[in-house]
Structures are given as C-alpha cells and as structure tokens.
Amino acid sequence: MSESDKPDTLTLSHMWVALATFLLASILGAYQVLERAELVPVWAEGYYTSVTAHGVIMAYVLTTFFIAGFGYYCASVSLERPVWNRPLAWGGFWTMLVGVLMVVYALVTGQGMVLYTFYPPLTAHWTFYVGAALLVVGSIAWVVIMLVMPIQWKRENRGQPLPLIMFSTAANATLWLWTLIGVAVEVVFMLIPLSLGLVDTVDVGLARTLFAWTLHPIVYFWLIPAYQAMYMFVPRVAGGRLFSDEMARVAFIMLLIFSLPIGFHHLYVDPFQAAGWKLFHGFGTFMVAIPTLITGFTVIAGMEIAGRLRGGKGLFGWVRALPWHEPMVLAAAFALLMLTIGGFGGVVNASYGMNTMVHNTMWVPAHFHLIFAGTTIIMYFAIAYHLWPKITGRELFSRRLANTQLWLWFIGTLVLTLPWHYVGLLGMPRRTAVMLYDAEFVAPWQPSMLLMAFGGILMTLSAVLLVYNLVMTHRVRTAVAEGALEFAEAVHPPLKLPKPLNGFALWNWILLVYMAAGFGYPLAQFFVMDVQPAMAWGW
Amino acid sequence: MNDLSPEQEKAILEGPPRGTFAVLILYALIFAVAWLALYFGRFLAHGPVS
Fold first, then answer.
1. What number does CATH give the domain A3-528?
2. Inter-chain contact B1–A239, Cβ cutoff 8 Å?
3. A367 counts as catalytic
4. Whole-angstrom Cα distance, residue B25 to residue B23?
5. Which residue among A128, A144, A328, A377 is least crowded, i.e. fewest CB within 10 A of its CB?
6. pLDDT at residue A428 tops 80
7. Is the separation of the CB atoms in A43 and A49 below 8 Å?
8. What does the alpha-carbon distance between residue A484 and residue A504 come to, in Å, rounded to a whole number?
9. CB–CB of A309 and B4 under 8 A?
10. Global confidence as pTM
11. Residues in a beta bridge with A361
12. Domain segments of chain A: what residues?
C-alpha cells in the first residue's frame, strides 16, 4: 500500500469531526444538567435547543463519523488493500459535513427545537431535515464501500473466511442500510415537504411508525463497533485469544436480524398501533438479549483466557491478573458493567406492562445513557486510544491520563444515571426545561438533580481530557514502538465456514420477510383504513 | 506474562471458561432478584392508574 493509499487521513478526518462535535455536545450536556438542577437561570428555549444539539451530535454526528472512520481503517488493514474508491469516500465525508452544517444553521438560529427526534407535529426549519438527509446520503457512500470491499476480497480468496473485523463491519453497514429506510422515507416524503410549506399537514401516526422503524436498530449500529473492539481488540491487548470466531459471527448476524423489527416498544402508549403488533415487537425486543448474552459470554471468556495465560488462578483470580493499565481492557470492563445495569433498565422499558410505570420519565434517559455513554462511547474512547498511535506513528501522549479519563467517565455516568432511575420511578418527566408542578411533589427530586449535575460535570471534564490527550498525541515526538493494527486470534481459527457465516445474502432475504411481517400491515393501515382508530388486530 | 509450558497453555485454551460461567450465573441471579423486586415491590404495589 503506497503512502497516499493509506486510510490514515480519511480515518483521522472522520474521527476528528466526531471528537470535536462530541466535545461541544458534552459541554451542552453540562449546561442541561445545570439548568435542570436550577443551578443556572431557567431558559426554556436555550434548554430545548441544547437538548436537540446534544442529541443530534451524540446520536447522529459523533456516531456516523466515528463508525465510518473506524470502518475504513479496519477494512483497509484487515483486507490489506487501500480503501476502494477513495473519491467516493471523500465525497461521502463532505456530503455528511455539509449536512451537519445545515443542521447547525437550523439550531443556532433557534429553528430546530425538535429535540433529536423526528416526531411531528414538532417541526424544524427545512435546513434541519435536508441536513439530516445529507448526513444519511453521505453515510451511504461508506455503506457501499464496506460492502464492495469484502465482495472483491472474497472473489480473490475463494472459500476463505472473511476476517471477522470485516465481516462485522459489513454486518453493520447492512444493518445501517436497513435502519435508515424508515427515517429516510419519513424525512423525504413527510418532514421536508411539511417544513417547506408544500403540505399543510402530515399523518403523525405514520410518521411515528416510520421513525420507530429506525429508532431501535440505530442503537445497534452505534453499538457494533464497541462489540467489535471487545471481540477483536480486548483479547489481543490483554494477551489472550478470542474464545470463538464462529460465536462472534452468530452474534453479529443475530444483532442484524433481531434489532430491526422491534421499534414499537417505543410506541407502547401510542394509540395508532394495535396491541397485537406492539406485543409482536415486544417479543422481538427480548430476542436481542440473545446476541447480547453471547457477546457477554464470549468477551468475558476471552478475558478469562488472557487472565489465566497471565498466571491468574482459581475461579476469579484471572480478573486480578488482567492488565488493567491498558485503556482497552479497563474500558471493556466498565462497558460490560454499565451494559448490565443499562440492560436491566431496558428490560423494564421493553416489558409491556411495566413500561407504563416509567414511560416518558427520567428512567428512559437513564437507560439509554448507560447503553450509549456507558457501553458504546466508552469503547469509542478505547478505540481512539488504540488507533491514534498506529495512525499518527507517535506514542499516546499519556496512558495514565487516558485511564483517569475512563474512570471519570465511568463514575460520572453512574452518578448521572443512577439518580435518574430513582426519580424516574417517582414520576419525574424527561425533556422538560421547567418543573411547573406542585412544590411538595417536586421536592424529593431535588437531591437527585444535584447528584445528576455533579455526574454531568465529571463526564464533561472527562470529554475534555480525552480530546486533550489525543491532540497532544499529534505533538508527541516519540515514534511509536507498536506496529500495525492487529486483531485477536481465535482459539480455533476458522479454516472454512458455511456461506451464511461468511456473507449476508440469506440474512437479507430473512430480514425482508421479518420486516414485512413486523411493519407491513402497521404501515399499510394508514393507506387502507378510512377511519382511525379502527384496529385490525388487537383489542 | 507467566512462563507456561505448552501443555499448560493448551489446557487453558481448551478448558471450559469456569470463571465466565460463574460471573454470568452471578449476574443472572442479581438480575432476577432486581427484576422481581421491581415487579412485585414497585409495579404491582402501585396498583392500577387512577
């Protein structure tokens, strides 16, 4: 690979957009917790704009740019070839960036206070929706490249198993393509015409159903790079092996299939879908626990192998033997811990009955901050610390600072979210700038609000340390001692795999049937039924 | 890194991950207790919405 073919600039450009916007979103997060704790003057417009910007950046900008940059790097290294069609990759990058700038325009001019959802009748300026559409269009360039590169490799290496990192990246690209269909249709055919004044009204039920298509699988699009690092970097860094390559492939395939037709657990209290469809999606939601458990088992087993190879004895002695000074290992342990707590909250959310107890309360952001910040983003930090020396050719500025940053993030996330679970059970609503309720009713929430503010500030401080460490790494003069990016070797490396574990043709057909079953009638009803709220299935 | 003989290394690589099973069983127990506490202690105790 020649110098100009290396994926470094492409990866760094994507990742720096992700990290710079992440820092901004973290500062906005600190403002929001201070506002809600009433430690700064209440300013509703500022709060709602901030929530929108914070959510849009964290959920769509940070993730999409980071995942694209990570994908390009891993594809290039694992397949030992330059990124296919670099002009297309750069075209995608600039398209996404222009989209982000259009969204920023809507936000800074106060015309984008729609939180970070696409739920009419809340409507933003048209630049918000066109910008979001461009972000999606740009990301499709990444999808195409991530699907073409393995096809080319397989043609040249007939019968060989695709490297696991590439297989899982292609799984994520496939998942993203399926995921964005719902919101893309909603934005292009409903929200852009509405925001431009081309139509007077939209069917809110249809819009919410389309957004539900996207709303849950997108979480797994964010999460898959974190799982990739757990499967392929953690055992390598810890000095162990991947417990099972095949189990990892099965988990990624299950994540692709099971995460898609389950979005109605976000609509449990909405009136326009019948109970039977909600139950169908509810059962599907619980199916996602299976690949999550496979991942937990395989990753912890890989860590156990590493600990035992390092001399750990007994049932738990291997835990102490792990190299905790390595940011990758520390982050993985924190991520798994927070995944278990966040997963518990998610089970309550997904339970059809119990959902009513916590619906639209602070319990919900507690759950998704544990999954997003606690499990996903903390692994993005570890990935950045792992890749930066390899990309820049310089030693990481400070490993100790990296570990301090991870500890701060871990403590901050718990201090932020555990009180949110408590006040959620007390009925405190989410996404509100002001608490215009009876003072006696609100009083028990206040101590938790102060804790929340403290946790949020710890997380913001952690974000600053992350960016500082990575910026300073560019200025370090010591050349890196480590070589190229390497992936964990499986205990039994696969020599030959059945086609379904080496590609996605079968799984796309299965998904087509599953999505048609899960969303076919629930979407069609908006076009075939005259009267709302007639129910075709349910009571 | 400890100096392990090839036999010891093979035994670790091929052996069952007992510690992992223990961690997951412990987690499942804590999870089940927490869920039951929330279901019976909070959800059912709350009664119907009035």
1. 1.20.210.10
2. yes
3. yes
4. 6
5. A144
6. yes
7. no
8. 29
9. yes
10. 0.94
11. A429
12. 3-528
Known active-site residue A216? yes
The pLDDT of residue A333: 97
Residue B1 lies in a domain: no
Q: Residue B8: inside a domain, yes or no?
A: no
ipTM: 0.92
A431: Cα separation from own chain's centroid: 20
User: Residue A312: which residues within 8 A CB-CB, separation 6 or more?
Assistant: A318, A319, A320, A321, A322
Can you tell me whether residue A274 is helix, strand or coil? coil
The confidence score (pLDDT) of residue A387 equals 95
Contacts of residue A206, Cβ cutoff 8 Å, sequence gap at least 6: A190, A523, A526
Q: A493-538 pLDDT, tens per residue?
A: 999 999 999 999 999 999 999 999 999 999 999 988 765 554 555 4
Spatial distance between the Cα atoms of A130 and A479, rounded to a whole number of angstroms: 44
The two structure tokens encoding residue A509: 């057909």
Enumerate the residues of chain B whose CB falls inside 8 A of the CB of residue A297: 17, 20, 24
Instruction: Say if B9 falls within a structural domain.
Output: no
Q: Is the dihedral of CA A189, A191, A194, A198 positive or negative?
A: negative
Q: Which residues of B touch A490 (CB under 8 A)?
A: none
Q: Is A340 on the interface with B (CB under 8 A)?
A: yes
Residue of A385, A430, A487, A519 marked active site? A430
Asked if residue B30 belongs to a domain, the reply is: yes
Residue A539 has pLDDT above 50, yes or no: no
Nearest-5° Cα angle at A412, A410 to A415: 110
Q: Kindly give the residue spans of alpha helices, DSSP state H, lying in A37-125.
A: 44-56, 63-79, 86-108
Q: In this complex, which of B9, B14, B39 lies closest to A309 when CB atoms are compared?
A: B9
Q: Is A430 among the catalytic positions?
A: yes
Q: Tally Cβ neighbours within 10 Å of residue A529.
A: 12
Q: How many domains is chain B built from?
A: 1
Q: Report d(CA A365, CA A420) in Å as an integer.
A: 8
